[in-house]
Every structure is written in structure tokens, then in C-alpha cells.
Design brief:
It is built from 8 helices and no strands. By secondary structure, the chain is an all-alpha fold.
Length: about 140
């Protein structure tokens, strides 16, 4: 799978956005880092899948609750209500991107070292329940 230059930049922005959000949470919900992470994450998603597909993704009728919560949480973070904003944003994020968790889990299981750890019986069972993965009948 080849990525265009625009998509590579988008992946970088999403990565930096996730990093700044993580650092913002570690530093006791620093609003400036969380806001910067939110901006980078949203801009990166737009560059990875394109502006039109991003709009259609967030505007789908099935995802409207997640979209409202996600952007309301971002707005609360911008207004320095970092902890409440991140909770609302996390709820929206799970509603928006929760369908991708089984795909991400299967991808991580194919990686050399991480896949062995994630395939351990105890860890595998917990992650399958959290991600909502279904076991194949074959």
C-alpha cells in the first residue's frame, strides 16, 4: 500500500496529535497541549482520507452523536475545561472510531514482537472483549 505525500504528512500530523494529547493528559490535562493535539489530529485525519471523505465521515447520520460529542469536547478543551472536555471528547471518539478497533487489533497482532504479546491467552481474551472482536468459526 503506497501513500501519497499528502497522506504521509497526514499520518505524521495524526501521530504528533496523539503524542501531544498523551503528553497533555500526563501533565495533568494541560489545556494548551490538548488543544494543539486536537488540532493536529483533526488536520491529520483530513489529510489522510481527504476533506470530502472526512466531512462525510463526521456527517453520517449513524455517527452524529459521536461527532457532536467529539467537537463539543474539543471546544471545551479550547475554553480551558480540559478534564471535562477530554471526557466528552473520549466518548465521542469511541462512538466515531470504535468500529476500527478490531481492525487495529488484528493489524497489531501481525507485528513481530507486539503480535506475540497480544496473542497470549489472557491478554487476547481481554482485548477481544474490549475491541468487540468475534472469533471465526473456521
Amino acid at each position: 500500500m503506497w501513500l501519497t505525500d499528502q497522506q504521509k504528512i497526514g499520518v505524521g500530523l495524526v501521530s504528533f496529535g496523539a503524542f501531544f494529547i498523551l503528553i497533555g493528559v500526563i501533565l495533568f490535562f494541560d489545556a494548551a497541549l490538548l488543544a494543539l493535539g486536537n488540532i493536529l489530529f483533526t488536520a491529520g485525519i483530513t489529510l489522510v482520507i481527504g476533506p470530502q471523505k472526512t466531512f462525510y465521515f463526521f456527517a453520517r447520520k449513524q455517527k452524529i452523536r459521536g461527532t457532536v460529542c467529539f467537537f463539543l469536547g474539543m471546544l471545551l478543551v479550547f475554553f480551558k475545561w480540559a478534564m471535562v472536555g477530554m471526557l466528552v471528547e473520549m466518548f465521542g471518539f469511541l462512538n466515531l472510531f470504535g468500529d476500527f478497533f478490531p481492525v487495529i487489533l488484528n493489524f497489531l497482532r501481525q507485528l513481530p514482537f507486539i503480535g506475540n504479546v497480544l496473542s497470549l491467552p489472557v491478554i487476547s481474551g481481554i482485548l477481544d472483549k474490549l475491541a468487540g472482536s468475534r472469533q471465526s468459526a473456521v
